[in-house]
């Protein structure tokens, strides 16, 4: 397998899955048991944007808020991972409906 295939696989499949399960699956779930849903959205968005600040800049905050609101709307982490994957390859087919 060529190195570029490995990098593409990691970027398009592995990274979004791990990221979404960590932020929306685990962190969101833990904080949602402690705080109300609005506070949980803001806290997880803030943490997400801090981690991505160097690579995305201001877009990290908007991206974080969008993804956590989309997760709240449909509750499907795999769906969000697909959205991130398609965004990485230049297409974004994500909608917040079930």
Automatic annotation (TrEMBL):
Signal peptide: none annotated. GO terms for molecular function: endopeptidase activity; metallopeptidase activity. Keywords: Hydrolase, Membrane, Metalloprotease, Protease, Transmembrane, Transmembrane helix. It comes from the Bacteria. One of its GO terms (biological process) is CAAX-box protein maturation. Its EC number is 3.4.-.-. This is CPBP family intramembrane metalloprotease. Residues 3-73 form the CAAX prenyl protease 2/Lysostaphin resistance protein A-like domain. Belongs to the UPF0177 family. InterPro entries: CAAX_protease, Rce1/LyrA-like_dom. It comes from Lactobacillus kefiranofaciens. The chain crosses the membrane at residues 60-80.
